Structure formats: C-alpha cells, structure tokens
C-alpha cells in the first residue's frame, strides 16, 4: 500500500514514526556537529590571537632587534600582516592580542566559552578586579558581546561593588555576583537608559512601565540572573477595592515572587505602606507552600535615605526602596568612590 505523503511549509508530513525519528536523529546530529565546529573554530582563533600576542612580546624583548623597530613595530606589523592575510590585523587588534598575552600569560587560564570579541571588550577594563568580574559573569550568564558591552557601559561592577565591603569586592572578582538572599538582587541605582525616555521632557509612570515591558529583554539583563516576567498591572482584589502592582516577576533562584512598583518622582513613605500591603496579599493568597516570602521593590527617581530608613523600620516583609536613572552613570566617578572604599579599608 502506497503511503500518503504531503508537504507543509516545505516539510514532509507523514504518520511514519520511524521515518520521523530518522529525520530527528540526523537533524540533531548536524546541530551538534555545527555547535562543535563553531566551538573548535573559536578555540583555534582565540589560541591564535594569544600566540600572536606572545610572539610580539617575545620579539619586543629581543634586545637589539627591539631597538631597531622601536615604537613602529605594531604599526609595521599591521600593514604587513594585512597585506599578507587581509582583515583582522589592524593596529588596535594587534595591541589587544599583545594585551591578551600579558594579561593571561598562561594560555590555560583563558576560557574558550568566550570569543575573541568578548576578550576584546574585557581587555578594555583598566582594573584587573573589574575585568575578572565581567569575565566570570559572562561565563555564568552566557552574555553575548553586546550584552557585555552594555553591562560595562552601565558600570555594573562599580554599582555592585559600592554596596559591599573590601571582602565583597574581592568575592565579586573571584566568583561573580552571588544571589543568596533578597538584598543580593537589589541595585541602587538601576540604570534604564534603554527606555528612550530621556528624549522626552515629561513622562508618566505608565510610560516608564510600558517602556520597560517593550524592552523586557534589556530590563531582565539589568535586573540580573534569575528573573522571570509574570505580568504588568497585576490585579490585587481586596474586599471591594482593586489594586494593581506595576510589574510582577518570579525569581527562579530565590524561589519567590518579586513585586516592583514604579514612581516617576521621589519615593514617599506611603508608597512603602502600599507595597507592604501587596506583599501581605501575595503571602496569603498567591504564594504556594514551597514558595519563599515575596520581595517588594519600590523604584523611584529619587529617595530620601533617612525617610526611607524610618518608613521601612519595623516591617517584617522583604521590602526595599531603590532609585533608577534614565542615563548611563559616570564610570570615573563611581570608580573614584570605589577606590576610596578600598583605600579606607586598608587603614
């Protein structure tokens, strides 16, 4: 009996399970082969960049030979190698290949989970602790190059480091950002430059909320590891009244809900009381027995530290007040503050 075969969207449709298994096996085989090939290519390219850096440094240490070429060595190499091999040997590329070797003199300390493009960005960090932090986070989070560049531009390392002590700064560099408690997910300030709102002279809280939802991938990157988006304008019915939480997430690591309320202006003490109400509702009505208590974040453009200290006093729920800004922070200022923190800890 001849089997009836049809096609849909270019794919053969059949009820033959053995045939479909064959298609699946071959498809999976080639998917894995391509992944391995890409990994092998990346490994070879990264090793070649490291070796190039080593050759340059060893040549520079060659006494009389070094004096003969002097400061023009990299420039001459860029011209000659580009002539022989084409693109990829610009002066800046060669400088960073040299820096790659000097920073990682033992090739086995390189992670082949990262590409040369990742290392090109990492090597722009002047501070060794900062570079190692981003390297650890890149590997753990699987950041693409553009995501790494964004995190560096938003001074993520400095923002996290300034919220801890010297031991915490060293832990950031050695282990990356660890999420063990509610306070570990808080950033102050949150940087939301991707919303496009700085271009507007005035905006409403709903504008900010919509912009965050429209740029959810970037917002999740800023929030950090473990966040899963549940919804916006989450309705909380209490008696005859209906309240709404701006944004609700679930944190996969901490196993709890995270509620975020947005404030266009300064956070008021009444905003804290309102969030406390939401958290109590979630604990009693939404959380499952295996969920940990929810976390609340009131996120405003400004906050008075002393006012928030009194407003949060005596509250048992995990509730935080934090600032956001719609522009990238001044990295030099943050680094200067961090340097002072580390200097003071030495005294």
Structure description:
The protein is an alpha/beta fold. The chain folds into three domains: 40-110, no CATH class; 125-180 and 330-347, no CATH class; 190-328, 3-Layer(aba) Sandwich (Trna Endonuclease, Chain: A, domain 1), CATH 3.40.1350. The chain contains 14 helices and eight strands. The strands form two sheets. It has a six-stranded mixed sheet, sandwiched between helices. Strands 1-2 form a two-stranded antiparallel sheet. 25% of the residues are buried. The mean pLDDT is 90.
Characteristic key phrases:
single chain, 347 residues, alpha/beta, Trna Endonuclease, Chain: A, domain 1
Shape category: globular
- CATH topology descriptor of the largest domain: Trna Endonuclease, Chain: A, domain 1
- Element order, helices and strands? EEHHHHHHHHHEHHEEEHEHEH
Largest β sheet strand count, sense and barrel closure: 6 strands, mixed
Order of strands across the biggest sheet?
A: 3-8-7-6-5-4
The number of distinct β-strands equals 8
